[in-house]
Amino acid sequence: MLWERDELLGTAAAAGEAARAGNGRWMQVTGAVPGTGRTALLDEVVRRQTADGMRVEHARGTPEEAAFPYALVRRLFTEDIGGVPFVTPTGHGEQRLYHRLVTRLARLATERPVLLAVDDLHHADEPSRHWIGYLARRIAELPVLLVTTTCAGYTDPPVFPADTGTSAELRPLSAPAVVRIARAAGLSTQETTTCVEAGAGNPALVHALVADLRDGPLPRSSPAPVRSRYRETITGWIRSLPDPRSRHDCLALAVTAEGGTTPGLTDRVTGLLPTRPAPGSPSMGHRLGTLLRHPLAREAVLAAAEPEELAALHTHVAQVLAEEGAPATDVAARLLHVDRPGEAWMVRSLEEAADEALRAGRPAESAGYLRHALRGPLAPDRRAGLAMRLGALELPGNVTAGIRWLHTGLELHTDLRERASAASALSAGLVAGRDPDAALRILHQVGRAAADDELVHVLQALAALVSSHDAEAWRDAVSALRALAPVAPPTIEPLVCGLITEYEAGAGLCSAAEAVARVERRLGAPVDQRLRTAWLGSAATLLQWADRLEEARALAARCLPSSPVPPDLTDMGLQCMLSVRAEAALWAGEFGRVIDENVAWVELSAEQGVRLPHLAAMVALARSEIGARAEAWEAVTVAGPSGADTSWEWNELGYARARLHEADGDWRAALEGHLACGAGQNARDFVSPVATPWRSGAALALARLGRREEARELAEEELRHARTWGTGRTIGRALRAHAAALGGRLALESLTEAAELLGSAPAPVELVETLVDLGRARLDAGNGRKGRDTLREAHAVALRLAAQKPGARRLLDLTEEALRRGGARKTSDGQALTAAERRVAELAAAGHTNARISSSLCLTRRTVEMHLTNAYRKLRIARRTQLVAVLAREAGPVGE
Q1: Which end of the chain has the lower number of beta carbons within 10 A, N or C?
Q2: Residue 151, SS3?
Q3: What is the pLDDT of residue 238?
């Protein structure tokens, strides 16, 4: 069935009627590109004219016979016409031949009107095309209809007289026509859209797509075994083009269209050709312009190209873009199609693109550019630098590949100082890959080759930082640092002091005040650039332990790159800053921030990337606080077991697991987890509760299990170490555990002191837990009013944390349960608010808008308004401003 060709068929019918009446006519049908249906239209004209009694002489031009004179003429006349030479005559000889052929045709037409149907005239030999033009000029008085089809752009068509015929161009099918074709074939809406967009109204392509889509979804890459008629159709067109310029233009347009570039770029790329099209004679590529905007069409065109053709085009496009100042990533995207970037500007463009992609937060793309740049001609030191950069990018997602590239960079560096920097990066990568022993070997090996003392001291300080991930090596490193401290150069001494202070803080040998004083004296001092982030990471750790959370976070923010740029894990200091940032946010009760900033790193561990157990621990605890218990366990499971690794990070992860067991109410498992954490910390001489208060956790578990004597022993030891350190958080936590071990009225004194200390510390989680324990203890001691007030205070703190998104679900549930059990959940008229109504009312009383309450509690605005309306009715109030007083009054003493 021919679609949307009725007008042309009508024109052909009228021309045929005139020819049968003795008034010869010609009709030339042109398609801008192949596949427009010229042959199908001609066949239909032949069928109809045959039915009307015309004699048909039918021939088709073929590229194979284009070099043979009069090959088409011989195919056109089925009867022997004799005397047609196999060479091209000239002058009068040509005229005699042309006249003889027309005379022969006239004799045929006297018997019966003749239809000369010539398909693909553009492929015919030149003498035959000239004779067709001669015939058109003498057809007026012959009962002959001449119908030819041609595709524009192949050859110059013969000139026909306008008064005896018509030229017509086959237009693309309309979108509604394509939709009808696709729907008739039973294609889906999405598949029909593909036919409309990728077919561009070309009948051959539309029908090829319909056939392909019946076989399965598109696209299919060219090596795929499944046949693609669509690809075969387009590649067939490209390969049949006799004109190198047209072929080149098609490829150029497909290449430039891949990047969404402008037509002007295509003109400059096709300008490589030695010849250009004549004015007003666009090449095949330009006529296919609209079609080649579709990726399926581009893929098909490019499948017809040789690899070296594509490489040359992409290189030229890249060069033009670079000269015009295009973004480096646009230039580099072209160079990725070149097997080896053979010139310096190519490598430079790829390197710039890697920087650009990294700044945009696309490290995988950045790594791809560097990987390709390393295939180019590079001096050893330049290659080493690129290998180090690539290793840093590969490391998070593929630790094996990252370390391999870092090793390559170290081996290629010839300058000793560059080798030292490379060794530092490689050692950090090995630590992230959980191989601190190998990291130490690398640093010691490079250190032995160092010629100057300063470089030796730098490497020694870095080795000490690596040693913190190994219990035995850490002790030895601290001893070496103590010996180095008196003679260390001023630019190295701050890190030496910081690491010694970290050890002493963990070993219970110094207080928080003393540690902060050491840090503050050195924060303004000049530090060796190679040790800057390591020193600031150590300083931030100590400030965080000392409850100076804002200062610690400020140091982390100073060093860590802004989003979306990922931190460089080949920098030990930045690894430390990640930990500080996460733990400080957790201690401050910013659980959503902990999850948002660190969950990506935890997920990398599930594949082949680095394992960062400390970040996994922080994410797990944050998820537990928001009530996502299953996801919390998933985080610690992904990090895996520690094996023989004695890094402090695994102790942090063990502590997190124990806390999750507590949240599950599995006190025996919690006890085992805390004791295992303690064993790991003791092996490192880390007895302080500043980081992992495992004794407090174990004491709470023992108290729950009824083993109070053992709990008391651990709690008292914990309290002793906590008072040595001297911060409100550590002492308050230890006092809470001490109170649990004591029980009864004896616990009140410890809990009261703990609440006072935690109230002035940045420790909202510990404060809520302690206030709940204190409120319950006061209720048990018979002091109902004071106990309920304490529980309300705990609930108010929990509400503030719950107002974040996601909120502190665990603490809110804890305080609400305590309020219910404590009898502080009754209204003045005996009609109780539901838990949901009270939660909404309390947030409204705290000044939150309905929109914020809706966001915090994950409720719709309508639900929030309904709960408030019910609360107003039960509390017998009419305005939001009355909530604060009424809620405080109705939650007062009951039965006292």
Answers
A1: N
A2: strand
A3: 82
Copy the structure tokens of residue 561: 């790159």
Q: Are 384 and 412 in contact (CB under 8 A)?
A: yes
User: Cα angle vertex 269, ends 267, 274, to 5°?
Assistant: 90
8-state DSSP, 121: G
Residue 752, token pair as written in the block:
């009261």
Tokens 């208060």 sit at which residue? 693
What pLDDT, on the 0 to 100 scale, is given for residue 64?
87
Look at phi and psi of residue 808 and say left if phi exceeds 0, alpha if psi is from -120 to 50, else beta.
Answer: beta
Q: What phi and psi, each to the nearest 5 degrees, are found at residue 200?
A: 50, 30
Give the Å distances, CA to CA, from 582 to 113, 195, 459, 621: 92, 51, 28, 11
Q: Tell the residue number behind the tokens 């053992």, with chain if given.
A: 710
pLDDT < 50 positions in the chain:
222-225, 271-281, 826-830, 892-896
The whole-model pTM stands at 0.76
Tokens matching residue 72 = 């088409």
Q: Which DSSP state fits 30?
A: E
Sign of CA dihedral 878, 881, 885, 891: positive
Residue with tokens 């954490």: 677
Rounded to whole angstroms, the Cα distance separating 698 from 713 reads 11
CB-facing half-sphere around the CA of 608: CA atoms within 13 A: 8
Kindly report the number of other CB atoms within 10 A of residue 389's CB atom.
Answer: 25
CA–CA separation, 515 and 139 (whole Å): 108
User: In this structure, what is the dihedral angle of CA atoms 49, 52, 54, 55, given to the nearest 10 degrees?
Assistant: 80
Q: Which residues pair with 49 in a beta bridge?
A: none
Cα 163 from Cα 882, distance rounded (Å): 96
